[in-house]
Amino acid sequence: MTSFWSVVVTLITLGSIGAFAYLLWVCATNRMGKPEGESMGHEFDGIEELNSDLPKWWTYMFVVTILFGLGYLVLFPGLGNFSGVLNWTSANKQITSLEESRAAVANTNGMVQYDQEVSDANAKFAPIFEAFAAQPVAELAYNEEAIKIGKRLFLQNCSQCHGSDAGGTTGFPNLNDDKWNWGGSPEKIKETIMHGRVAAMAAWGDVLGDEGVDAVVEYVLSLSGRRGLDVKLVELGKSKFGLCAACHGPDGTGNEMFGAPDLTDQTWLYGGSRLAIEESVRNGRAGVMPAWDPILGEDKVHVLSAYVFRLSNPNK
């Protein structure tokens, strides 16, 4: 907030409290020039207004409210840029990275509410996650209590990309099936969540040219059993597929080491239409999954991995 608006907010806030205090003083003082209980000359529907003092309990309550408001503004932020005597804040603001967040937590005086709540939660729940982390992922995946916790972690941190049902969408894989570009074993799933993944497919448009792109697309479509294709174009595409085989393998079945998908099935991360495949071949694809270890810690990732493994392996 700029200094100008800080001053404006401060003046409005203190001015409002001052106005209420003056109104209370006026109403609590007999300024009508008439004795207590005398008629004020106003009558409506048989009800007559008398010159009466405000109820004492109401007046005292109003005074306490004003004093409380002033005390609050001294102790806590509320007057423009003034941070309050206690230097309390709901959260560290203007934080743009985990490093800055950790530094802010280290330098805080304990009056950052969010940091304190996180600290209290970690102290309370850390032993639970530690106990779960002692079990193998494949075993933990069928511990119903752990799965309930893992589902909450998934909804909080993963559903924004993979969907609340883990069904995925264009560019974000479905976690319910048995198709895993980087491997679907418990160990590989945990590795993916812990350290993240960076997938990049090169753009081959300039190398292949328009005819080459069309041919490779036709061949890729044939790998997944698509019918009604141009046989000559398929053969031409097969001869040019060597550029792709380095990652996808000579038979197009993919390579988990590179995260290269299997092109022989009907699962397409970016869409399986001719247009979508052409876009992939011509302009390439780039996908990034963030590493969750710095955010959640290994124990929570362990439980989350068990939940993700369970999605595609519902039966033990």
From TrEMBL:
Similarity comment text for this entry: Belongs to the CcoP / FixP family.
PROSITE patterns: CYTC (PS51007)
Residue ranges of the TM segments: 7-25, 57-76
Keyword Transmembrane helix carried by entry: yes
Entry annotated with the keyword Iron-sulfur: no
Keywords, sorted A to Z: Cell inner membrane, Cell membrane, Electron transport, Heme, Hydrogen ion transport, Ion transport, Iron, Membrane, Metal-binding, Oxidoreductase, Repeat, Respiratory chain, Transmembrane, Transmembrane helix, Transport
Oligomeric form and interacting partners: Component of the cbb3-type cytochrome c oxidase.
Protein name (Swiss-Prot/TrEMBL): Cbb3-type cytochrome c oxidase subunit
Domain Cytochrome c: 145-224, 232-312
Pathway: Energy metabolism; oxidative phosphorylation
PANTHER family documented for this protein: CBB3-TYPE CYTOCHROME C OXIDASE SUBUNIT FIXP
Cofactor binding note of this UniProt entry: Binds 2 heme C groups per subunit.
Free-text function comment from the UniProt entry: C-type cytochrome. Part of the cbb3-type cytochrome c oxidase complex.
Compartmental location: Cell inner membrane
Cofactor (UniProt): heme c
Pfam families membership: Cytochrome_CBB3 (PF13442), FixP_N (PF14715)
